[in-house]
């Protein structure tokens, strides 16, 4: 008899990221898609709504009921900051491992969820970005900052994204800040003719957020030095780019205890 599959419930399955997630879970032999959550649907077959074969899985309008009825092992959440916190609380309370792509949580909240996960002896993950290329961009940025500490970030996302700067940009800034001293950039007497022109300030580093239709998720990390610049750029052309990282995360949260923030912490 083979190993028991990881039973996955997807919250926000009707959305763009949710649809791709359901497909990815369905296509992996180690995962079992057992249910979906949407506040407007209850008892409807997921296949009927998404338009492709999703087995016998149905929609629930109550997360707790979904996790209990399906005996879920992992909850994947790609909703929004207004509901994800309650979803995390409920999943951890029921001993279900959360894999979350929604951003906007505070370090204090993350620390609390980490403690609760440890108390229940389960693993969990909150990842600003599941694209492996984006994780590498963050790592390379931290490496470059040791030698080129003057840096600005331009991140570009679709116009339906709620938080700015993006979680990926914030995580990149945090990683760079560990490698360089906080310092001002630009002329000390510079003046913004239009407020906000120089972007947000994170320990002297500037971050600029672009929100336009047509984008998915993109980021440039620009380093400046004497007579030279270095640009590290990652582009997610479509939402499929996130799926290998999502599938990998569902398996990895089975192997540790506590809540990890950032997929890079699970890579070699």
UniProtKB/TrEMBL annotation:
<comment type="function">
    <text>Catalyzes the conversion of 4-hydroxy-tetrahydrodipicolinate (HTPA) to tetrahydrodipicolinate.</text>
</comment>
<dbReference type="InterPro" id="IPR000846">
    <property type="entry name" value="DapB_N"/>
</dbReference>
<keyword id="KW-0560">Oxidoreductase</keyword>
<keyword id="KW-0963">Cytoplasm</keyword>
<dbReference type="Pfam" id="PF01113">
    <property type="entry name" value="DapB_N"/>
</dbReference>
<feature type="binding site">
    <location>
        <begin position="12"/>
        <end position="17"/>
    </location>
    <ligand>
        <name>NAD(+)</name>
    </ligand>
</feature>
<feature type="domain" description="Dihydrodipicolinate reductase N-terminal">
    <location>
        <begin position="6"/>
        <end position="130"/>
    </location>
</feature>
<dbReference type="InterPro" id="IPR036291">
    <property type="entry name" value="NAD(P)-bd_dom_sf"/>
</dbReference>
<keyword id="KW-0457">Lysine biosynthesis</keyword>
<comment type="pathway">
    <text>Amino-acid biosynthesis; L-lysine biosynthesis via DAP pathway; (S)-tetrahydrodipicolinate from L-aspartate: step 4/4.</text>
</comment>
<feature type="domain" description="Dihydrodipicolinate reductase C-terminal">
    <location>
        <begin position="133"/>
        <end position="267"/>
    </location>
</feature>
<dbReference type="InterPro" id="IPR023940">
    <property type="entry name" value="DHDPR_bac"/>
</dbReference>
<protein>
    <recommendedName>
        <fullName>4-hydroxy-tetrahydrodipicolinate reductase</fullName>
        <ecNumber>1.17.1.8</ecNumber>
    </recommendedName>
</protein>
<feature type="binding site">
    <location>
        <begin position="101"/>
        <end position="103"/>
    </location>
    <ligand>
        <name>NAD(+)</name>
    </ligand>
</feature>
<feature type="active site" description="Proton donor">
    <location>
        <position position="161"/>
    </location>
</feature>
<feature type="binding site">
    <location>
        <position position="39"/>
    </location>
    <ligand>
        <name>NADP(+)</name>
    </ligand>
</feature>
<keyword id="KW-0521">NADP</keyword>
<comment type="subunit">
    <text>Homotetramer.</text>
</comment>
<comment type="similarity">
    <text>Belongs to the DapB family.</text>
</comment>
<keyword id="KW-0220">Diaminopimelate biosynthesis</keyword>
<feature type="binding site">
    <location>
        <begin position="127"/>
        <end position="130"/>
    </location>
    <ligand>
        <name>NAD(+)</name>
    </ligand>
</feature>
<keyword id="KW-0028">Amino-acid biosynthesis</keyword>
<dbReference type="InterPro" id="IPR022663">
    <property type="entry name" value="DapB_C"/>
</dbReference>
<keyword id="KW-0520">NAD</keyword>
<dbReference type="Pfam" id="PF05173">
    <property type="entry name" value="DapB_C"/>
</dbReference>
<feature type="binding site">
    <location>
        <position position="38"/>
    </location>
    <ligand>
        <name>NAD(+)</name>
    </ligand>
</feature>
<dbReference type="GO" id="GO:0008839">
    <property type="term" value="F:4-hydroxy-tetrahydrodipicolinate reductase"/>
</dbReference>
<feature type="binding site">
    <location>
        <begin position="167"/>
        <end position="168"/>
    </location>
    <ligand>
        <name>(S)-2,3,4,5-tetrahydrodipicolinate</name>
    </ligand>
</feature>
<feature type="binding site">
    <location>
        <position position="158"/>
    </location>
    <ligand>
        <name>(S)-2,3,4,5-tetrahydrodipicolinate</name>
    </ligand>
</feature>
<dbReference type="InterPro" id="IPR022664">
    <property type="entry name" value="DapB_N_CS"/>
</dbReference>
<feature type="active site" description="Proton donor/acceptor">
    <location>
        <position position="157"/>
    </location>
</feature>
